[in-house]
Write a structure and sequence with these properties.
Rossmann fold; two-stranded antiparallel sheet; 22% strand; binds S-adenosylmethionine
């Protein structure tokens, strides 16, 4: 299942995703002629940084399932940078990319065995994948609060068929998955990116876009704001410190592999 996001709001709420992604991009081994695919490109800001690395001789494609994200991303479009609304689960490229990159997106994909097989197929021989996504222990505070919220009697009936939207494996589990694909080299490692948001308002923007999106989708309009206030109120109480900053755990899985 894919969700709709507000690309403009996400752009304002994603300072931490952008920080992680920029670091990944700086470390990419790029000669300038590569064809690059960005999976779950979101608002396109990082995709345009990738394009800057390979302009004018290489090219970049960003894909995302959300029309709202791609609409925002298209502002960056150039001759060698394009964006498509496309579900990562439907990936069907063959030997096309030198680099497949993904930042802060793949925890939205449930079946990584299939994903890794498709990514392997989409890479050229010698091509690399570079992923950073959420792993076990991520967003411990938000998850405990939102699990409490969906059990509240006034909300519970809307979540009776709710499927948890994220896959956040342990490092050991993911290492085994990567090893089952015939990459010539691979490395999987964890990263503690726990973070203080500057203040409750900054944290609230992140709660709104993207974190609450899968829950809001199931609620009728008359309950949306009540649910949102429940989660924001509990999160402020649970995570905000005397100095006004608010804490959350961000545990990442990093993957680098070569075909
Ligand atoms: C937190 S955003 C990350 C965006 C961008 N990579 C960044 O680092 O700023 C996660 C993105 O994954 C996208 N996404 C989630 N599930 C997807 C799917 N099945 N296919 C394509 N994109 C998906 C969402 O639409 C969203 O734009």
């Amino acid at each position: 299942m894919a969700y709709e996001f507000d690309g403009k709001k996400y752009k304002e709420a994603s300072a931490h995703q952008k920080e992680w992604g920029a670091k990944l991009i700086q470390e990419l081994p790029v000669s300038g002629t590569e064809r690059i695919l960005d999976l779950g490109c979101g608002d396109g800001a990082l995709t345009s940084q990738l394009a800057a690395l390979v302009t004018p001789h290489g090219s970049v494609v960003g894909i995302d399932a959300s029309h709202g994200m791609i609409e925002t991303a298209k502002a960056y479009q150039t001759e060698n940078l394009s964006f498509d609304v496309r579900d990562i689960n439907e990936l069907n490229f063959e030997n096309e990319f030198d680099i497949i990159f993904s930042n802060a997106a793949l925890h939205w994909i449930k079946n990584h065995e299939v994903l890794l097989e498709k990514v392997f197929r989409a890479l050229k021989r010698g091509g690399i994948l570079r992923f950073n996504f959420a792993g076990d222990g991520n967003c411990a505070n938000f998850f405990s609060v939102v699990k409490e919220a969906i059990k509240q009697p006034r909300f519970a009936s809307y979540f009776s068929d709710f499927e948890w939207p994220w896959y956040m494996p342990t490092i050991e589990e993911y290492e085994q998955l990567v090893l089952s694909i015939p990459f010539t080299e691979s490395r999987v490692w964890s990263e503690n990116a726990d973070r203080f948001f500057a203040d409750a308002e900054t944290m609230t923007k992140w709660i709104d876009q993207p974190s609450l999106v899968p829950f809001m989708k199931l609620l009728p309009d008359e309950h949306k704001e009540d649910f949102r206030q429940f989660v924001i109120g509990r999160m402020i109480h649970k995570t905000c410190q005397a100095d006004g900053r608010c804490f959350e755990t961000f545990r990442r899985i990093n993957v680098l592999a070569k075909k």
